[in-house]
Amino acid sequence: MLKKILLVVLITILFIIVLLSIYNFNITRKIENYQSSFAKVTRGMKKKIVISIMNEEPHYIFYGNKHHVLWWNNQKIVHINDKVTISETFVYDVSTFFLHISFEISFDTNGNVVGKHRFD
Q1: Which residues 6+ apart lie within 8 Å of 20 measured at CB?
Q2: pLDDT single digits (tens) 11-56
Q3: Sheet of 69-72: strands edge to edge?
Q4: Which helix (H) or strand (E) holds 25?
Q5: Residue 41: closest CA among 108, 101, 88, 105
Q6: Full-prediction pTM beyond 0.85?
């Protein structure tokens, strides 16, 4: 009887480990896909091209200035003022077990990319 209980517990633990491994693999693959697509986004690209490169519609769209600073990767470009007007920010996000990662791409009023940043 004890052997059967131990066997059931062992099988259950192995099953949970397999499920967690599959989940982790899928999340990791999604982050890698976004990262490689995100790296291809350059200044001046239009919204339709960005959507094509990212291979899907954004998960969220923020209208107006979401942040007080415009970013390009990890560099602050300019403080938001009269010189740069952000009309939209596309957000592609991935939620992991511990961390939320978002890839944000900002557009000016002409629909051109002016900023991008990965937040984790």
Answers
A1: none
A2: 999 999 988 888 888 888 999 999 999 999 999 999 999 999 999 9
A3: 60-63, 86-95, 100-108, 113-119, 69-72, 75-79
A4: helix 2-39
A5: 105
A6: no
